[in-house]
Amino acid sequence: MTRDEALTTLGLDEGATREEIQIAHRELAQMLHPDKFSENKRLRSRAEQQMKRINEARDVLLKSAGSARRSGAAGTGRSSGGRARGGASGAGAGSDSPAQIRFEAEARAHAAETARLTVAAQLRTMCERRRSMGGLAAVAALAMLVTSRMRGTLGMLVFSVASMLTVWGIVDVVSLSSQIATLRKRSADLLRQRDAARRVAEEASRL
Q1: Residue 97: phi, psi to the nearest 5?
Q2: If you write DSSP's letter for every residue of 24-54 in order, what string do you get?
């Protein structure tokens, strides 16, 4: 995984600090953890693969951040604990200070949006596949009707294949519909988490 891919995976900008990398990883890992999809084996498997990618992204970014520190690339005008957008440094603000609360809330909101976009991408893919499988099932069902009146080996063969494709398509559509419903619910949950975190950040900024 390249550094650019790692930044995209964690939803970070170039120049992210170690603290921002760790917070982004922590929040995103919690939101996309496989346990969130424990009721669906396919979605859980996808989440496990996504978790491996999130962990790899963290390792890539932390490694490059460590290399930058050792090479003396500290003259960027940022404090060591966080970027200006967070409004707090790890050393200069207490864990319960308004600035640190805002920093954490903004990180959580950003992670929730990154996770929501990841879920939305999966959702689009599954919706497209469901449409394709629905179309396949419809064509196969039509072929069944046509060949049901045909006699001979060819007619029986086409009817048999068409019936298998129809059943396969229907089963896949039902399975995908279940996964889509789960992803839509998760997307709505992430949207609420994002908005709640943004409200906390706004309130903290007024303190």
Answers
A1: -75, 150
A2: HHHHHHHHT-GGGGTT-HHHHHHHHHHHHHH
SS3 73: coil
d(CA 182, CA 40): 8
Give Cβ neighbours of residue 69 (< 8 Å, ≥ 6 apart): none
User: Which of 39, 27, 34, 26 lies closest to 50, judged by CA?
Assistant: 34
- The strand pairing partners of 153, in sequence order, are none
The answer to whether the beta carbons of residues 205 and 102 sit under 8 Å apart is yes
Report yes or no: 86 and 106 within 8 Å, Cβ to Cβ.
Answer: yes
Quote the strand ranges of 150-200, DSSP E: none
DSSP assignment string, 109-130: HHHHHHHHHHHHHHHHHHHHHH
Q: What are phi and psi of 16, to 5 degrees?
A: -60, 140
User: For residues 34 and 136, what is the distance between their CA atoms, to the nearest angstrom?
Assistant: 31
> What's the pLDDT tens digit per position in 79-126?
333 343 444 444 344 557 888 888 888 888 988 988 898 899 989 999
**Can you say whether the dihedral through the CA atoms of 66, 111, 12, 183 is positive or negative?**
positive
Nearest residue to 19 (alpha-carbon basis) of 85, 70, 75, 77? 85
Question: What is the model's pTM?
Answer: 0.67
Give, rounded to a whole angstrom, the gap between the first and last alpha carbons of the chain. 41
